[in-house]
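Workshop exercise sheet. Pairs work together: one partner reads the sequence aloud, the other fills in the structure field after running the prediction. Swap roles for the next sheet.
Pair: D.N. / O.F.
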Amino acid sequence: MKTLLMTACAAAALLLASGAGAAQMVDHYTLDHDGVRMEITAPRGDIIRVRAGKGALPEDASWAVNADIKRTLFEVSDAGPVAEISNNKLTVRVDKATLAVTVLDKAGHVVLADAPGQALGFENGGFRVRKAMPEDEHYFGLGDKTGPLDRRGGAFTNWNSDTFGYGVATDPIYKSIPFVLGVDESGHSFGLFMDNTWRSFFDMGKSERNAFVFGAEGGPVDYYIMTGDGPKDIVEDYAYLTGKAPLTPEWVLGFQQSHWGYLTQGEVKGIGDHLRADKLPADVVYMDIDYQDRDRPFTVDSKAFPDLAGLVSGLKAENLHLVLITDLHVAYAPNQGYAPYDSGAAQNLFVRKADGSTFVGPVWPGDAVFPDFSRPKARDWWGQQYKTFVGMGVYGFWNDMNEPSVFNTRSKTMPLDNLHRIEEPGFAPRDATHAEMHNVFGMLNTRATYEGVRKLAPDTRPFVLTRATYAGGQRYAATWTGDNTSSWAHLRLSTSQLVNLGLSGFAYAGDDIGGFAGEQPSADLLTKWIEVGAFNPIFRDHYQKGKEPQEPWVSGPEHENIRRHYIEERYRLLPYIYSLAEENSRTGLPIMRPVFLEYPKAVANDGVADQFMLGPNLLIAPAPNGESPAAYDVTLPGEGWTDYWTGEKVKAAFRETPKLERLPVFVRPGAILAKQPLVQSTMETPKGALELHVYPGPDCTAQLYFDDGTSFAYTRGVFLRQTVSCRVENGTLHVALSDREGSYKPWWTGISLVVHGWSGKGATLNGGALKADVAGNALVVGLPDLAKASDIVVAGQ
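Structure field:
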């Protein structure tokens, strides 16, 4: 017999009306129908959570969602065939006969609705949920899945996989981030996050023309629907649920050089020397597994690297940081004096086989065991393994192979019936199979690394780079797109991968510049990739063994000079980029963005998939087919944009002819860009004035942000924050600076105000006359350092 049950917490219920089906204020609403129980809650006014199970609700626990998020109250009216749940942000309607869910905003616009027919189905231990797919809706997210920027028309599997040399259509690859951002052509948006760590899928209209379908082979029906006025609201909602990335050390935003493998201490030191000799600004050199003794994590090959501490200090003297790889496969080496194995085995901290014995599988060191990161005790033990490296002054670590990858197996990973022990607060203590824990394993690895380094060096910001992760992993690590190939197709693919990673929480993301695997990149391809990489969040040149050198100085002086120019421009832009990083730490908004995040109605524009934005102010428009000399169309969202390199105004639509030395970059009207004099490293103090580049136009405001770039002193008020804005009145430009916040002392003693596209010559500061000079298409005004609220008036044109 069909039954219906509505329950509410007694402490939260407030009767608003009397009689059957009376409206109530509750913090959850539960339905039982045909053996399925469904619960709807609201973690925030603009977010709805749906859970369902056969006969009972699933466990209310998550590896991804912040534990301190509470339920909010909403009003429920369940008279009649449709239950209506509402608050001041949205309305949810649930059809009692089918359990179909429809979410509407307060204006009555349908945000997301279940598809006609069976919306929720259970079979073979798994489930499927079907949502309606309007014709004008576009879909983004799902991390760094391959394929086009827009996920519509594709089907994707979430199963972290070691996919060396993957193709442009390979799926799955390294990450599982089951979050989708939907944007229609009027700019309306929604977000959907399915919190399920099992092997799962999203089918965005590939098998059904008018529906997108998601589900998993096991685990809970547990998903969140996010609403808002536009895509930025959805991204911030997702960050509210799964957390924001901690503010990065500034050196992570510099140029990074890596190779598998630099084989000796002298070779690594030589890389640093070459960067400095050629005046190629850089901050990081990586060491892959070759520095280790027999590829064993947390060891050092004392023959090839006789003085690792000396190497760290020598690079530091050249203002370079060393990042060390520390894979999670601990060598299975009983009775060999290998401390990581001995100490972990003594505490029984490794993943077990179904029969309870320790699982052993081959990886780089040969037979290896795998820490059971679902146990806090194992994570604490793992974190302590970094003590020696942190003591040397290393604060950057690279967790690779953490899908986890296992050699000589058809699945490329460990058996699905392996056992993990969940002892996490919020979860019921229990054994869980690898089928459940696989997709979250890499994230928990990075959690152990990040938290361990924090404990060892409490006031130094760690940097962790990971290949595999799950939703929420941005709280612990940056990421990259894995073992890509040296091809023009992969250069183009990098934009869609990195943009979708940013939308999926990972603001700090990059790819292997020039391509990791495959044939040697041509000189032109490497040059173009460095040009594009200069505007990506993580800027790392990395390549595999067996290839010819791929560092920026290869290919001769013409190419090196072009590459140097773009690396230098990256360093001049660091004040702007670092302010974007700080904004991300507060809001979750990505550093590298799709154009539609700033201009939602541009979502359907031709060419938008090949463009991207660095923050709200810079639009980068690479050639869609970089190997082709053919001109291509560039469409900008509106009038008034400026060519970043020439300072000249450009039309909203025009043809661009590719040139080796030119990456088209444009500045929006109303932008304010902070720049600095050139340095060779973020550890070097700039010499000269802070530059404020103003491009008069609408929405002309920016926030300056500075701190020491390495410590957590900013959490104690040691930072500098100041708002800069501009407006044009009667042909006169007014630039205003607010009072500064924070106690951080800036490196500059003066400010150079550069007003682009402005020909007026007179300027005043708080009424006093200033010197102003014309430089090309800009007016340059010299200012003292301005810590207090100030007004600069620039005469009309």
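Discussion prompt: Residues 647 and 776 are 8 Å apart (CA to CA). What would you look at next?
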